[in-house]
């Protein structure tokens, strides 16, 4: 009996150590049935419960066998997949296809390089155009600043010429004489000519002002406005309304509606 028990225990240890091998597990499962029969039916003095214990270990080996078979199937499938992948990866490429692919990539690279060169050329041209435009705008701005009043000055040239003619119209003997030697009628004729020339010159000057949006205004009789008038003195005058402009010393001028010089005036006050 002791031998059988020791054999059963040894078989159990071996079975557990060999559980990964499905064939050994099946063999030891059969051995447990034999031991169980000998312990329970052979008249050996072993309790029934201990003998049945060997039989109860059968499910353990059954499960072990199933797991082992499953593991072996998985390993087999993995091996097959690995073999297939290795065979696929190891499949040599066709030389003609490889050459065609390389040629296609080379053509694409050449096209990209051409596009890059074209884009770079456009960028450089654009930068050059922008630099030229900037320099041209700077020159125009500087010229505008320096010659902004060129048209106005050109209009004043005729006024200057007329004033020069008026000065030359006076004879030399008139300039040197004290007046007693010049006949009165000649003096009156000269004064009349000078007056007409001055009036004509003033009209011409006002025309030049108008062309350049310069307007002269005479505020006499208007209500005093500190935005347009500069009061120099007060003028007592009962015939005029108090607070109005009674006398104009200098007329005012505006440029595009903005006062360039306010009119210098005398304001009427109560006598």
TrEMBL record:
Keywords: Chaperone, Coiled coil, Mitochondrion
One GO cellular component term: PAM complex, Tim23 associated import motor
Biological process annotations from GO: protein folding; protein import into mitochondrial matrix
UniProt region (Disordered), positions on chain: 64-92
GO MF terms, alphabetically ordered: adenyl-nucleotide exchange factor activity; protein homodimerization activity; protein-folding chaperone binding; unfolded protein binding
Pfam families the UniProt entry points to: GrpE
Chain segments annotated as coiled-coil in the UniProt record: 95-143
Domain of life: Eukaryota
Keyword field contains Mitochondrion: yes
Transmembrane segments: none
Subcellular compartments: Mitochondrion matrix
Biased composition (Polar residues): 80-89
Function summary: Essential component of the PAM complex, a complex required for the translocation of transit peptide-containing proteins from the inner membrane into the mitochondrial matrix in an ATP-dependent manner.
PANTHER family for the chain: GRPE PROTEIN (PTHR21237), GRPE PROTEIN HOMOLOG, MITOCHONDRIAL (PTHR21237:SF23)
Family to which the UniProt record says this protein belongs: Belongs to the GrpE family.
Name the record gives this protein: GrpE protein homolog
Biological source species: Cymbomonas tetramitiformis
Upper lineage: Eukaryota, Viridiplantae, Chlorophyta, Pyramimonadophyceae, Pyramimonadales
């Amino acid at each position: 009996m002791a031998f059988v028990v020791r054999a059963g225990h040894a078989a159990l240890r071996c079975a557990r150590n060999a559980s990964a091998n499905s064939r050994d597990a099946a063999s030891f499962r059969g051995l447990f049935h034999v031991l169980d029969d000998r312990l329970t039916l052979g008249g050996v003095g072993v309790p029934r419960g201990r003998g049945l214990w060997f039989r109860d270990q059968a499910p353990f080996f059954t499960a072990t066998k199933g797991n082992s078979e499953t593991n072996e199937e998985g390993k087999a499938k993995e091996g097959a997949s690995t073999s297939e992948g290795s065979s696929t990866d190891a499949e040599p490429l066709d030389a003609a296809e490889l050459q065609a692919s390389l040629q296609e990539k080379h053509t694409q690279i050449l096209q990209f390089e051409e596009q890059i060169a074209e884009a770079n050329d456009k960028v450089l041209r654009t930068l050059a155009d922008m630099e030229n435009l900037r320099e041209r705008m700077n020159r125009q701005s500087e010229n505008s600043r320096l010659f902004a009043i060129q048209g106005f000055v050109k209009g004043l040239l005729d006024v200057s010429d007329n004033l020069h003619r008026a000065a030359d119209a006076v004879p030399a003997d008139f300039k040197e004489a004290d007046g007693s030697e010049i006949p009165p009628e000649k003096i009156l004729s000269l004064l009349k000519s000078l007056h007409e020339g001055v009036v004509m010159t003033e009209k011409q000057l006002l025309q030049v002002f108008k062309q350049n949006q310069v307007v002269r205004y005479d505020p006499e009789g208007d209500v005093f406005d500190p935005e347009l008038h500069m009061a120099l003195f007060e003028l007592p005058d009962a015939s005029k309304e108090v607070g109005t402009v009674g006398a104009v010393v200098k007329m005012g001028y505006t440029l595009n509606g903005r006062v360039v010089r306010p009119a210098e005036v005398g304001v009427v006050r109560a006598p």
